[in-house]
Amino acid sequence: MNGLVFLIPIALGLGLLGLAAFFWSLRKGQFDDLDGAALRIFVEDEEGRES
Amino acid sequence: MSAAALIERDFAVPDIRCAGCIAKLEQGLVRDRRIAAARVNFTEKRVHLSYTPETGMPDLIGAFSNLGFEAHPIGAGPDEADAEAETSRELLRAVAVSGFAMMNIMLLSVSVWSGAEGATRDLFHWLSAAIALPTVSYAGRPFFRSAWRALRHGRTNMDVPISIGVALVCAISLYETATSGPHAYFDGAAMLLFFLLCGRWLDSVMRDRARGGVTALLRNMGTGAMVVGEDGCSRWVDATALEPSMVMLVAAGERLAADGVVMGGTSQLDLSLLTGESAPQSVGPNHRVHAGTLNLDAPIRVRVMAAGGDTAIADIARLMGEAAQGKSRYVRIADRAARLYAPAVHCLALMAFAGWMIAGAGWHHSLLIAAAVLIITCPCALGLAVPAVQIVAAGELMRAGVLIKDGSALERLAEVDRALIDKTGTLTLGRPEATGLDRFDVGVKSLILALSQASRHPLSEALTRGLQASDVRPVSVASIRETPGFGIEALWGDHVVTLGRPQDAVLGDALATELSVDGRSVATIRFADRLRPDAAEAVEALGRQGIESMILSGDRASAVAPVARELGLTAQTGMSPQDKLAAIDRQVALGHKVLMIGDGLNDGPALAAGYASMAPGSASDVGKNAADCIFLGDRMMPVVQTVHMARRTQAFVRQNFMLAIGYNMIAVPLAFLGFVTPLVAAIAMSGSSLIVVGNALRLKRAIR
Question: Global pTM?
Answer without folding.
Answer: 0.77
